[in-house]
Each structure stands twice: as structure tokens, then as C-alpha cells.
Design a protein that fits this description.
The chain is mostly helical and 527 residues long. The chain has 21 helices and no strands. The longest helix is centred in the C-terminal third of the chain and has 41 residues, at 398-438. The chain is globular and about 75 Å long.
């Protein structure tokens, strides 16, 4: 399939989008399924708490480290080629997870999945610049976003059902046929593309960016586990920020050098649509993590439902995402990117604010209502911000430019989890102390168990009585409320930034083409 065939038959690009969305679902599904499978894996591998943490953390670290080099490789050697190889590696890594004999083998398999997943998500987003024009792109990104978030409830629902009825390895083997279908369909429908002039390898830039991203993400992960006072976590974060600053200065200097070929064109950040598209995507992700991080714990620890029930209760969030993403192209066209972004953050923050009224016995209707509001806001912001950023990328830089957008988003996830996890945990502990002062049912033994987690607390309190269980649940809800208020504050920051800095529309492209993209052309070849 070549670019000419796509242009002669426009319907093919939407079929190609279906193939790309399938790849996105495979990557996202893997992350959400793992969260459900961890208790089972702990028993299967006799894994320690540290090993369980690295099943997730190792994946995130590789994902962050490989983003920018993956964009460079795609621009240089062909984005379709890299996508196909990555999908195949993803299938291999999934099978390796299923048949791992111990925790070490499983961790190595997860690292392979992180390597493949990074290239997949970057190449999928880069393909939008090739396949869709500025008018079509918001609609395409809306479909991509819907597919990206579909795995939120689908992972726990599918994973919970499979873990209940089948061998745990099927949770990972399910990705193998999905990856195979993705390879077949992408090979047939996605056109090959690469930069007209191959970018330089920039080994120093790759080293600085990789080390900086890994150090920063590791610091966030460790802070989420051990608290913000942990010295190694603070040192890792500081080192990561310094390395990324060195990376930015190096790229700026290399870009000014005659014949210099930096890893990223820092000139992109001169354009508001790109800069604020990237920033607002990250801010929205930080706010969104409030519901994703806290609500599964609430569903299972407070309401007492299982993983399957937790996944089902996230469906209103996905319904809201569909309501926000699918009409986003029309909204942007009608009112402009600035107003659409502001409206998205208003829905996002408003939903979180309503969520702070959640109690220990809130109805499914109430929970579904505010989660749907959050989904609408998130969908609208993500489509608008991502489209604004991608509108500034020509065919030569779609790979690395998309990698920048994705790298910032992937760094935001562990940051948000660390911030909100700390708020939730500290307020939960404070709530337990307050409950212990007013309810003698919280004995020292129950209190000690409850301080580990709401799940351990409910289990210990169940042997004492209903009053003790209710006290633990009320303490957790107090932490949930505080975490959601932090998400409201983050949403308000995003709203103000969008109102002040987001362009009304992506109108800077022509200037960018004159200043930075001159001579750029799409190189398409038969696959």
C-alpha cells in the first residue's frame, strides 16, 4: 500500500485507522490487565512486593526511555516498518509473559513489551500526520483516544473474567492474536513513510534524553512508593531534570550548527499550538489520573466489589470519553481550539468536584454521572490538544514530534500517581487516626493493618465488626475526597493555561512550513 493509493481511495485511510486503533487497544489492554493479575502473579511466582512493583515500573521506565529514539528510527527507516516490527515484538513479549517460569523471566518479558509498546504508540500517532489533513485529524484523534481509553474498563472486565475461569497465562496470550491481526491489517492498509532527508542519529541527544526520562520517571515511581521525603527519589528526580535541561540546551546548540541534525527540532516549541498542545495534554492526564488511580480502590475496598465489578463501574467514564472525543472535531471547528480546551477542562474539573461528594455508600447512578462528566472533559481536551500539537508537524518530523507528545504524557502518568497517591495515603492515615480517637472499635491491631492499605484494613476490621469496617471505609473516603480536590485544582490550572495561551485555531502551520518545513515532503513507497 502506498500513499497514492490512499489518496485515490480516501476510505482506505479510515480502515487504516482501524488497524492503528487495534494496535493501541493491544498496548493499553496490557497495562490495565496487569493491575488485575498482580495478586495472581504474586502467588504463581512467589514474588516479593518489590518484584511486583517492578512488573509495572520496569515497563514504564522502558516505555519512557524508548519514546524519542523510536520516533527517530521511524523517521529514518520507515514508520510502517517500525510499526510492524514492534507489533510482532509485542506478540512475542506477550507470549513470553505467559510462559515465564519465574519473576525474573516475567520482568524481562515486561521490558520487551515496554520496548515494543513505546514504538507502537509513537508510530500510530505519527501516522496521523501522513494519513489525515488538518480538518480530518481531530476526528481521527477522537477515534484514537476512544480506542486508547477503551482498555480502562475492558482490561479489568476481561482480565477478571479470564483469571476467574482460566489459566492466568491467557491474560497475556490474548494479545498474541490481536498483535497478529494488527500486523496483517497494518501491512495491507497503512502506507509507508519516512523523512525526505534522514535525520542524524544524534547519539548525545539520545543518551541525554533517555537517561533524563528514565531518571525522572524512576524518581516519580519511587516517590509514589516511599513518599516525597525519600532521598533517592528526590535525587533521581533532580538528576532527571538536569539531564533533560542539558538535552534541551544540546539540541538548541546542535540545531544552530551548520549541518547539525538534532534529535528534535526545538524550533517547534516556538509555536503555541505545538507547545500548549503538548502541555495541556499532560495537564489533562495529570487531572484524569485522579479518577483512574482512586476509583478502582474505592470500588473494591469501600463498595466491596471484585475486579470485574470494578471494571463495569468504569464504563460510564468510557461512555463520557466517547461523548467527548467523537464530536470534538465539530466542536473545534465551530468554536475554535481555545474555547474547546477551556470547555473540556471545565467538564473535567466539574466532574471531579462532583466526585468529592462521594461517600461510603454512593449509588452507581451518582458515580456513573460524575465519571461520565470527567470522561467528556478528558476526551474533549485530549482531542483538541493533540490535534493542535500534530497540526504543526510535517511529514519529515511526525515521528519525533509525536514522540515528544507521547513522552510528556507517559512521564505525567507516574507523576500524577505519585502526587495523588501521596495525598490519598496521607489523608487516609489522618482519617484513620481521627476514626481511632472517636471509635474504640479500631483496635491497635486493626489500625496497624489498615495503615498498609484499605484492603488490609477492611480484611482486619471484618473480624471485629461492622463498625470497624465502616470506620476504615470512611477514612479512605476522606483520602479520596482530598485526592479529587487536587485533581480539581489541576483542572483549573489547565483551564487558565488554555484560556491564556491556547490559539483559537491551529493557524500557525503556514508560517511553520516557511520557517522550518521548507522542502519537506512525504516519502511513500510500496510496502
Amino acid at each position: 500500500m502506498n500513499v497514492t493509493a490512499i489518496k485515490e481511495n480516501p476510505a482506505r485511510k479510515w480502515w487504516a485507522l482501524g488497524a492503528l486503533s487495534l494496535a493501541v487497544v493491544a498496548v493499553s489492554l496490557d497495562s490495565t490487565v496487569l493491575s488485575v493479575a498482580l495478586p495472581t502473579l504474586a502467588g504463581a511466582f512467589h514474588a516479593s512486593e518489590s518484584q511486583l512493583q517492578w512488573f509495572t515500573s520496569g515497563y514504564l521506565l522502558v516505555l519512557a526511555a524508548v519514546m524519542l529514539p523510536a520516533g527517530l528510527l521511524g523517521d529514518t527507516f520507515g514508520r510502517k516498518r517500525l510499526l510492524l516490527v514492534s507489533l510482532a515484538l509485542f506478540g512475542v513479549g506477550s507470549a513470553a509473559c505467559a510462559f515465564a517460569a519465574n519473576a525474573t523471566e516475567f520482568t524481562v518479558a515486561r521490558l520487551l513489551l515496554g520496548l515494543a509498546g513505546a514504538a507502537i504508540v509513537v508510530m500510530v500517532l505519527a501516522a496521523f500526520t501522513v494519513l489525515f489533513n488538518d480538518e480530518e485529524r481531530p476526528r481521527a484523534i477522537g477515534i484514537w483516544a476512544a480506542a486508547n481509553f477503551l482498555a480502562l474498563p475492558l482490561g479489568p472486565i476481561l482480565g477478571g473474567w479470564m483469571l476467574t475461569n482460566f489459566w492466568w497465562g491467557w491474560v497475556f496470550l490474548i494479545n498474541v492474536p490481536v498483535a497478529a491481526v494488527g500486523v496483517a491489517v497494518a501491512a495491507a492498509l497503512v502506507p509507508e513513510s519516512r523523512a525526505a532527508v534522514g535525520p542524524g542519529l544524534d547519539p548525545a541527544g539520545i543518551a541525554f534524553s533517555t537517561a533524563g526520562l528514565v531518571s525522572l520517571v524512576y524518581g516519580f515511581i519511587r516517590a509514589g512508593q516511599d513518599g516525597w521525603g525519600d532521598v533517592p527519589a528526590l535525587a533521581a528526580m533532580a538528576a532527571g531534570l538536569v539531564l533533560l535541561l542539558v538535552f534541551f540546551l544540546w539540541e538548541t546548540r546542535l540545531g544552530r550548527r551548520p549541518g547539525g541534525q538534532p534529535l528534535i527540532d526545538v524550533g517547534l516549541f516556538k509555536f503555541r499550538s505545538f507547545t500548549w498542545g503538548v502541555v495541556l495534554s499532560a495537564v489533562a492526564g495529570l487531572a484524569m489520573i485522579g479518577s483512574l488511580f482512586t476509583m478502582p480502590q474505592y470500588f473494591q475496598g469501600v463498595l466491596g466489589v471484585n475486579a470485574l465489578g470494578s471494571g463495569l463501574r468504569l464504563l460510564p467514564l468510557v461512555g463520557g470519553l466517547l461523548m467527548g472525543t467523537l464530536p470534538a472535531a465539530w466542536v473545534v471547528k465551530a468554536v475554535g481550539a481555545k474555547v474547546a480546551s477551556v470547555a473540556g477542562f471545565a467538564f473535567l474539573g466539574g466532574g471531579m468536584a462532583v466526585g468529592t461528594l462521594t461517600g461510603t455508600a454512593s449509588s452507581n447512578w451518582f458515580l456513573g454521572f460524575w465519571l461520565a462528566l470527567v470522561g467528556i472533559g478528558m476526551g474533549l481536551v485530549m482531542v483538541t490538544a493533540s490535534s493542535a500539537a500534530l497540526s504543526q508537524l510535517d511529514a519529515d518530523r511526525s515521528g519525533v514530534g509525536s514522540a515528544v507528545l507521547q513522552a510528556v504524557a507517559k512521564v505525567g502518568a507516574p507523576l500524577g500517581a505519585a502526587i495523588l497517591g501521596s495525598v490519598l495515603h496521607s489523608q487516609y492515615l489522618a482519617g484513620l487516626q481521627a476514626q481511632a480517637l472517636t471509635h474504640t472499635v479500631l483496635s491497635p491491631g486493626v489500625l496497624t493493618s489498615a495503615q498498609q492499605s484499605v484492603f488490609a484494613g477492611v480484611a482486619a476490621a471484618s473480624s471485629v465488626g461492622r463498625g470497624a469496617v465502616q470506620a476504615v471505609r470512611e477514612a479512605f473516603v476522606s483520602g479520596l475526597t482530598s485526592a479529587l480536590w487536587v485533581s480539581v485544582a489541576i483542572s483549573l490550572v489547565g483551564l487558565v493555561l488554555a484560556a491564556l495561551f491556547m490559539p483559537r485555531g491551529a493557524t500557525e502551520r503556514d508560517k511553520l512550513g516557511k520557517d522550518h518545513g521548507k522542502g519537506a515532503r512525504l516519502v511513500g513507497s510500496d510496502s
